[in-house]
Amino acid sequence: MSHSDVVIAGGGLAGLTLARQLKQEQPNLSIFVAEKRPHPVPEAAFKVGESSVEIGAHYFQKILGLDPHLRSDQLEKLGLRYFFPFDGNRDIARRLELGPARFPPVPSFQLDRGRFENYLLRTIKEQGIDVVDGAVVRSITLGPDRHTVSVQHDGHVFDVTGRWLVDASGRSGLLRRQLGSTRASTHLASAAWFRVSSRLKVDDWSTDPAWLARVPSRERWLSTNHLMGRGYWVWLIPLSSGSTSVGIVVDSTIHPYDRINRLERALGWLREFEPQCAEVVDAHAGQVEDFLALKQYAHGCERVYSPDRWLLTGEAGVFTDPFYSPGSDFIGMSNDFIAEIILRDMRGDDVSACIEVFNSTYLRLFDAFIRLYDGQYRLMGNAQVMTVKAAWDNGCYWAITAPLFFQRRYRDAGFIGSIEPLMRRFFVLHARVQGLLRAWDAADASSYADAWANVMDVDVLRRWQADLAGPALDDETLRMMLGRNLETLEGFARAIQDLASRTDVDLARFVSTGPSPDAFDIKPFTFTPVPSPVEA
């Protein structure tokens, strides 16, 4: 039997990055990682979750010091890009497009998960971390002084004890299931995905000169491309190994899971709802590398950090949805909380109070994020409403959620307590706007086409995103900035309500606070409906 300060059950993305962070912040810490998959793992056809956004990218790039690897061995992402439905989805150039023309000032990356995790495991071994791959966790026994993990490797079973136990076992959620603490979600979405060993470049899907001129570099393919429809979206994500990840994500109450849970069924579904994409995929049918499907993937958890010195990170704790690519964000935020807890404890501090603050904060963030998705997949076929929603959701992220991470304040329990009234106000506003968007979608049956929008065309959104890379701020300056940002969001919410009420006057009732709608210019996101054949 061996003993470590920290035992991490699971050496996927969450566990490997946590081990790296802990060792960087406290080199004398002894860490044991048990990873069930033998390494090296295959590239491309490995794990889903290839797209990162600002928080996750910042965590990998700056906090973990992985910028050289990301720049040389992964792909920088040309933002998030959306194509909304029009006329059977046979001509991408006619579909209303939301996306940037150039790379944003704060970068994010497309990750070949196999390549990334191979690199992480190899380098944390070089840091002196005890990593055993091909190791299966057989049991976890929680104790008052130390926890015991029984591990099977190469036909032998041995025990490892640790003062701290971190469950990073992913969707299997070893400890969450053992403790019976899974919290079911009402967000009933499911997904299927596969990888094709070729570049499927949306830039090649049309020769229309006006459409091509929107992105002169012809690098739309470097975006996380979303093909949108009522109750679903399809992703196209390029990987540095040369493959393309293709995924179908559906609200299971609108598009039943058994329509996509086998490769042939998924391809048949594509032919029905996304025929232009299906034609491209069919042309590469012999290059399909894998296929996986997951039913109703969202889940919560009653507790993720315990004063009994066990902690959950990544999907072992909670999971919201792949839309907006928040998976690595939650890994980064959770690992930052966990690092603060463990390192304080190893210094001899009493961590019971900060554990409660961090547990509550993380689960409130989960609840806020799940509101982005629960009941909202119906909006995905509405270009007008969904474009405004994307602007709102990005605005909230860049104005409040991301600055707290970039400024490293999530792991400052005192600061988090000091902005409790602001955060409560923010969460209430956020919930009201999501309700407004649902009601607006129900009132708007129009179709939209032949248009292009970019959230970076709105000055304040562009500034908020760029400001993430700004200098470190003291507590008072950061509080003032968050307060100003929230006031601007309140004006944005009133502007959304004003725009929605042009469709239905009854929608002028959801948001009752904030500046005049004139405080936020939403004109770039007002589209003209396309006349129906009867009207034409």
Summarize the structure.
The protein folds into three domains: 1-46 and 112-183 and 299-372, FAD/NAD(P)-binding domain (3-Layer(bba) Sandwich), CATH 3.50.50.60; 75-110 and 189-295, D-Amino Acid Oxidase, Chain A, domain 2; 382-536, no CATH class. The chain is built from 15 helices and 20 strands.
SSE blueprint:
Blueprint: E1 2-9, H1 13-25, E2 31-35, H2 54-63, H3 67-73, E3 75-76, E4 80-83, E5 97-98, E6 109-110, H4 113-126, E7 130-133, E8 135-141, E9 147-153, E10 156-167, H5 174-179, E11 182-184, E12 189-196, H6 209-214, E13 224-229, E14 232-238, E15 244-251, H7 263-273, H8 275-282, E16 292-294, E17 299-301, E18 305-306, E19 310-312, H9 327-346, H10 352-370, H11 383-406, H12 413-418, H13 420-443, E20 452-453, H14 459-467, H15 475-501
Parallel strand pairs: 1-2, 1-10, 2-7, 4-13, 5-20, 10-19
Antiparallel strand pairs: 3-6, 4-5, 8-9, 9-10, 11-17, 12-15, 12-16, 13-14, 14-15, 18-19
Helix pairs in contact: 1-4, 1-9, 2-9, 7-8, 9-10, 11-13, 11-14, 11-15, 13-15
Alpha-carbon Rg, integer: 23 Å
Number of strands: 20
Q: Which runs of at least 5 residues are low in confidence (pLDDT < 50)?
A: none
Q: Briefly, what CATH class of the largest domain?
A: Alpha Beta
Largest sheet entry = 8 strands, mixed
Indicate the mean pLDDT: 96
Shape: globular
Number of helical elements: 15
The total number of structural domains is 3
Assign a percent range to the helix content.
25-40%
Q: What is the second-level CATH architecture of the largest domain?
A: 3-Layer(bba) Sandwich
Class from secondary-structure proportions: alpha/beta
- The CATH topology of the largest domain comes to FAD/NAD(P)-binding domain
The fraction of residues in strands falls at 15-25%
CATH homologous superfamily title of the largest domain: FAD/NAD(P)-binding domain
N→C terminal distance: 78 Å
